[in-house]
Amino acid sequence: MLDIAQELSRWLEEGREFTVASIVGVSGSAPRGLGAALAVDREGTAVGSVSGGCVEGAVHDLCTRALKDGNAVVERFGYSDDDAFAVGLTCGGIIDILVTPVTAAATVRTVLRSALAGAARNEPAALTQVIRGPSDLLGKSLLVRPDGTFEGTHGDNRAALDRTAAAEARASLEAGRTGTVDISEDGSLCPGGLTLLVQVNMPPPRMIVFGAIDFAAALVGVGKFLGYHVTVCDARPVFATRARFPDADDIVVDWPHRYLRGTSTDARTVLCVLTHDAKFDVPLLTEALRTPVAYVGAMGSRRTHADRERRLREAGLGETELARLRSPIGLDLGARTPEETALSIAAEIVAVQHGGTGIPLTGAGTPIHRDAGQRAVLGVA
Q1: Nearest residue to 103 via CA among 40, 23, 48
Q2: Which residues, other chains included, contact 37 with Cβ-Cβ below 8 Å and sequence gap of 6+?
Q3: Which of 6, 114, 129, 374 measures 20 to 30 Å from 335, CA to CA?
Q4: Whether 143 contacts 170, CB under 8 Å
Q5: Could you tell me how many helices (H) and strands (E) the chain has, helices first?
């Protein structure tokens, strides 16, 4: 539900009562992943989505019923060959939905208020929910912060369970990954009677674009659309200006390699080198390819790439480091314009993020939707 934190936080501030339907299990091909949510208030107003349309109507009705009776419930939606008109996912997958009423009297309301407000401010935290277990525990939640402190509870006299859940949630937060955890009701780590969904909220991943050129301006827009915090860096102050890059979050005038060395990056960071100049490219890529980021791509022709590789080898980079370089940057879309080139670069980033092949889906035997176990660690969890 953290994907609709802005809207739900506002609903809570307005005193609305509502129900949240969250995806807590996915099998096969499904359009949305763990934690995606649809919320419905007492007036029938809905925000979010759990299926892109396949089962929204049925989930809306389920939310309405749960808000009336006040009980959390888990419901499964799948595809039935026996009845083509039954409610289900036409893509053939199966999703499990946890429906949690958030009424004025609900004990979970206070925890969700803190969790949603924090997520709306992009504060790092993890939210746990019981998604399998005794009916009186379904939907019970903890909000866990990076220092391990937490608020909420998974039930009365469940201190050991809460401590274990908080520790597991903190580990998920450090890894930046939403997922499920099986534990016992007594708080031991032995798989037992409980399954928790751990939803992780992290600040947006970074995209750093080096080279303040026209292609960079187009890439900034695509990066923002994909949810990145986008920084443009160029050593030339005449080009690195707010007027040229109004959509960038940050504009930095500095030598690219020096800026990269001093700024914060992580395993989700994307580095796009568009400088196309050896005096910038070589020191920057020498630094970038030794940094544990998710993606390093560099613009240039195949001749430029061959010369660049030679220079990087001379600078001391080995074959393992050079193998990380995506150059020429982007997928082969036949791009010509800056906007088309930006789309090509973004397509490659998404393919790397989700383990995609980049080939047309028409005639391909590869899965359309990959589960978390098939994906590389890059994107917003």
Answers
A1: 40
A2: 1, 3, 4, 20, 21, 22, 23, 48, 50
A3: 374
A4: no
A5: 10, 16
